[in-house]
Design goal:
This protein is an all-alpha fold. The protein contains 23 helices and two strands. A two-stranded antiparallel sheet has the order 1-2.
């Protein structure tokens, strides 16, 4: 594709502006680690929320969403539950407040408030650092694949390069260059630069999304869309089976559904709900999402920050997803059908963008999509090194180093994390494969230990270490040993290994120190199986009241999931012009908003 000079100028101007902002703000990040990684805990909650939403608006995920919307239609609104997308709802309702009350810098440091300082606590500290780095590296590799595919589709130069005997493809060279630019401003400015550039990126992305939705509405009539989709594509609800027959339209789509393992969709839904509840209560993985929570000013603001993410993210993003999907369905189905069994659904987004966006708007859109990648990548680059510097170097190697030394080491760690992530990215061939590994296998290994740490007093540091170790090993081994088992179906297997490690490691070792448990329980105030600890706390403080909000929190989570889902389906119905369904979704949105105002927002406390 050949870009117009105006489009290239817009993209170039955006990249330059991003660097200027990053460098201008970087002076604030040099004071100490708290400033570098958490912005000094002075950034307003709504700014952090917009930044967090921007970090989740990644281009690789957007390409995946467009591909599943193409295949599954309105039913694709359920498939992000595999992450699960409603972990933000659980954070919003109670988990963000629990996390923020610890007043620490990283997820690994947070464990000290739960397990204390003993050997088990040290082992738990080490294993969560390992997990955090593996997950950050996995996300960087995931982004590397997506931005390479995307850039090659639009940017006009062939950058294929040979270094000695090593041939680097044009896709990989584009990814290296864009990652390089992003790394520069992230390393220079830390959290301040990440957050402030992400606000710019979020605004650009939102405008781009709305433009694409409007263009799609104007270019695709309902009659055109109906001619290229199977019966049931517009129906959001399903029976026992999926029942989408693509055989007379694009036979390869049917093969895609079989390979995904989603034919018996009701079973898939039940598995996603089972996994989603457990993963959500376990809390966020130790990455940028947790970092934003720990960077808020108070527990109450942490909850509001998590709430605003869904409110601002999903409507514009799914307007873009639906718009690109119907443009590709109507105008590119013949070309995709001609690919036969080699069809690449991850290229649906580039196909639609390159043919239907006018000059000028195309440059803005491409800048927005590049921004989507940069924001996610930047958030991970800023989160990962915190574990290296704060949780390894400062804790075990040099606890008395100067702030300048810690910040300098943060620069080096950032470059190292990026280099390792890119290296793994060279070996990843499919966005879909790495997405499913992250959301099913990796999260499966994380869930058991992190669920029990909130809910069971007898769970100790040794249990956390062995549970996380068993889960991490299983998440790497199970996909190799059972390659024909889908990523979603491998979750219970990995969860089983992680649970055995967690429970066995706890029961075969001594309980954690009661003073540590009392301080954790009285400060964080989780619900769950804490009676022995609660009794001890009440001996010292008879006025202490245990958390009895479990039923209210779960009710709010159910209402919140419905609320969040309406934010996904409303823009999709709008773009495909199913206005009755859109109005119904809007009414449900208003009702659930009123309920949450009374049962959640009005009851927030620090």
């Amino acid at each position: 594709m050949k870009l117009h000079a105006l489009d290239m100028a817009i993209i170039g101007a955006y990249l330059v502006l991003t660097l200027i902002i990053g460098f201008y703000i970087s002076k604030k990040a040099k004071a100490n680690l708290d400033s570098y990684f958490l912005g000094g805990k002075t950034i307003p909650w709504y700014i952090l929320g917009l930044s967090n939403a921007s970090g989740m608006f990644d281009i690789t995920g957007t390409m995946w969403f467009v591909s599943i919307c193409f295949v599954y239609g309105m039913k694709s609104a359920w498939l992000p539950w595999i992450w699960p997308v409603w972990n933000q709802i659980f954070l919003m309702m109670f988990l963000a407040q629990w996390l923020r009350r610890s007043n620490v810098m990283t997820g690994a440091e947070w464990l000290k408030t739960r397990f204390g300082e003993g050997k088990g606590a040290q082992l738990s500290h080490i294993i969560v650092v390992v997990f955090a780095l593996v997950s950050v590296i996995g996300f960087i590799a995931y982004g590397f694949v997506g931005i390479g595919k995307f850039a090659t589709s639009f940017l006009p130069w062939d950058l294929t390069t040979q270094i000695g005997s090593l041939m680097i493809s044009s896709e990989n060279m584009y990814a290296l260059l864009i990652m390089g630019v992003t790394t520069i401003y992230v390393v220079k400015g830390g959290m301040y630069s990440v957050v402030m550039t992400e606000i710019l990126q979020f605004l650009v992305m939102t405008v781009s999304c709305l433009i694409i939705g409007i263009i799609a509405i104007n270019l695709v009539t309902p009659e055109q869309l109906n001619a290229v989709i199977p019966v049931g594509w517009k129906d959001i609800f399903v029976g026992w089976k999926l029942d989408l027959d693509w055989s007379n339209l694009i036979p390869s789509v049917g093969e895609k559904i079989k390979s995904d393992g989603y034919e018996f969709f009701s079973i898939v839904m039940m598995m996603m709900i089972f996994k989603g509840v457990l993963v959500s209560i376990a809390g966020p993985v130790p990455s940028y999402d947790m970092q934003r929570i720990l960077a808020t000013k108070s527990p109450r603001e942490a909850a509001k920050m998590s709430g605003i993410v869904s409110l601002v993210l999903y409507f514009p993003r799914y307007m873009m997803v639906a718009g690109l999907t119907i443009l590709a369905l109507v105008y590119f189905s013949p070309k995709l059908n001609a690919m036969g069994p080699n069809i690449d659904f991850e290229m649906v987004l580039p196909y639609a963008v390159s043919n239907f966006i006018p000059v000028g708007l195309l440059g803005l859109l491409l800048a927005g999509l590049i921004a989507a990648f940069m924001s996610t990548f930047a958030a991970n680059v800023n989160a990962g090194p915190a574990y290296i510097v704060n949780d390894i170097y400062k804790r075990f190697i040099n606890p008395n180093a100067s702030n300048k030394k810690y910040v300098q080491l943060s620069y080096i760690s950032s470059f190292a994390v990026v280099a390792v992530g890119i290296t793994f990215g060279f070996f990843v061939t499919s966005i879909d494969s790495v997405t499913k590994w992250i959301v099913a296998a990796l999260f499966g290994g994380y869930t058991a230990a992190n669920l029990l740490k909130w809910t069971w007093w007898r769970f100790n540091g040794f249990g956390y270490f062995y549970g996380m170790l068993a889960g991490l090993v299983a998440s790497l081994v199970v996909p190799l040993v059972l390659p024909n088992v889908s990523a979603l179906n491998s979750f219970p297997i990995i969860l089983c290994f992680a649970t055995i490690g967690s429970v066995g490691g706890s029961l075969l070792t001594k309980p954690d120190d009661m003073e540590v448990l009392k301080k954790f329980y009285s400060t964080v105030r989780p619900w769950g199986f804490w009676k022995p600890v609660c009794d001890e706390v009440q001996k010292d403080n008879p006025d202490f009241k245990p958390n009895k909000d479990f039923k209210r929190d779960m009710f709010n989570c159910v209402v919140g999931i419905i609320w969040q889902t309406t934010l996904i389906v409303m823009p999709m119905y709008l773009v495909i012009r199913e206005f009755t369904e859109m109005i119904v979704a809007a009414i449900i949105f208003v009702v659930t908003t009123v309920i949450l105002k009374k049962t959640w927002y009005d009851k927030l406390e620090d």
